[in-house]
Amino acid sequence: MAAARTFPDGFLWGTATAAYQVEGAVAEDGRGASIWDVFAHTPGAIADGTNADVAVDHYHRYREDVRLMAELGANAYRFSIAWPRVFPEGTGKPNPKGLDFYRRLVDELLANGIEPFATLYHWDLPQSLQQRHGGWQSRETPQAFADYAGYVAGRLSDRVRNFFTINEFSSFVEMGHGSGRLAPGLRLAPAQLNQVRHHAVLGHGLAVQAIRANASAGVRVGPAEQVITAIPVIETPEHIRAAAVATRELNAGYLTVMLEGKYTDGFLYEQGRDAPRFTDDDLKAISSPLDFVGTNIYAAHHIVRAADTSLGFAMVPYQSVHPRVAWPGGALSLRLTPESMYWGTRLLADLWHVGDIYITESGGPFTHEPGAVGTQPDIDGMENDSDRIVWLRAYLTQLQRATDEGVPVRGYFHWSTMDNFEWTLGLRPRFGLYRVDYETQRRTPKLSAQYFRACAQSNAVL
């Protein structure tokens, strides 16, 4: 019998969601509008024409959803707090009913033995800040975010001990302000885009400082970034070194400056006159000491090899026939690259000596629509998502490889607890361990829920 592929004692098994994708209730109890409320109602912005006004109604069904997490064997839950639910205008007077919802949610989690991990910004910027200041284009927004973060941490840190500042800087900056594919739907010039990048990491740093100043003793804080992952084409020393250099440079505008307190020479040279404007005080704030780093890992962005170039690496292009998982309703797809779990965490530890690492998101959009070609019948009333189980097993195997070698990964949060509103692709892609019937809001476990439960209970890859 093969040796058990176990994780370290105390390893956390969790699931993850984001406020705008699950809560609904966008106009209830004093919540203000967010940039996503506006963007999702823009004709043509969402592939299937839906929006998240109701989403999966988690705002009203959170007790049921927490019970479902407990039935999965989850002992941690990563959720986000909707900034406009707490500060409807982004700044100014807080909304007590908004914060009360998160108090109730946290109390329910703790009553079920589930550790809450709160994300303070998962893309739902208050629309008022976009209108008044241009959102992340202005230095006003990083400061407003810090004020909001300090307020929330000061009032929830008696029961929430772990806070993520911002989710996926690279996604909401590049696609929200570069390509226009995410809210607020802007296509900025390179210099303006670089300033948004800088303001995003500055907001993170100022929020870390505000949380330290306002939270209870012992609270821990870090970012939840989608680290741009480079994997070596062959695991030999020269190619591994190339992957490390590539990882540092590919993340220069985000995680590298957070962990090193400076922009790399290569980044500043490449940006030239378009480089962001910053001060030494900005860099000190951006590099405020962290307790952990969260990373969202779905696939490797690049395969690299050692090469005689200025930086010592070159990209190895993916073949067009590389195995992929398609996102229904759009042209996007995820490449099947389980090694991203190993190298995405190992290089974090090797490059920056990160003490604690969390996989804050990972999953696949496996969607099985009744009657669709290739969709197989349910098994014992559960959706047959055996493809998700194969994906999970492959990625978890590489994650266990990392922890077995001493990479300090402390927990894994599966994306997602349940099917939800998947940003510009709407309701069609289904990432959940629980299927949601969007007409009735009924939740039913998929076959993958059984697999997740078995792994969580045994603390091992099965």
Structure description:
By secondary structure, this protein is of the alpha/beta class. The chain has a single domain, classed as Alpha-Beta Barrel (TIM Barrel), CATH 3.20.20. Helix content is 40%, strand content 16%. It contains 16 helices and 17 strands. It has helices at residues 19-22, 35-40, 58-72, 83-86, 96-111, 127-133, 140-156, 169-177, 190-214, 237-250, 252-260, 265-271, 280-286, 339-352, 386-404, 447-458, and strands at residues 5-6, 12-16, 76-80, 115-121, 162-167, 220-225, 230-232, 293-296, 302-306, 313-316, 324-326, 333-335, 357-361, 409-415, 434-437, 442-445, 460-461. Strands 2-3-4-5-6-8-13-14 form an eight-stranded parallel beta barrel, surrounded by six helices. Strands 7-9-10 form a three-stranded mixed β-sheet. It has a two-stranded antiparallel ribbon with strand order 1-17. Helix 7 (140-156) packs parallel to helix 9, helix 8 packs antiparallel against helix 9 and helix 10 (237-250) crosses helix 11 (252-260). The mean pLDDT is 96.
Write a short abstract of this structure.
This protein has a single domain (12-461), classed as TIM Barrel, CATH 3.20.20.80. Helices cover 40% and strands 16% of the residues. It contains 16 helices and 17 strands.
Structural class by SSE content: alpha/beta
Percent helix among the residues?
40-55%
Largest sheet: 8 strands, parallel, barrel
CATH fold-level topology? TIM Barrel
Strand content: 15-25%
* The CATH class: Alpha Beta
Low-confidence stretches: none
Number of helices: 16
Cα gyration radius (Å): 21 Å
Shape: globular
Tally the beta strands: 17
State the CATH superfamily name.
Answer: Glycosidases
Mean pLDDT: 96
Q: Widest sheet: strand order?
A: 2-3-4-5-6-8-13-14
Query: From the structure provided, what is the oligomeric state, counting identical versus distinct chains?
Result: single chain
User: How many separate domains?
Assistant: 1
Alpha-carbon distance between the two ends: 13 Å
What's the architecture, going by CATH? Alpha-Beta Barrel
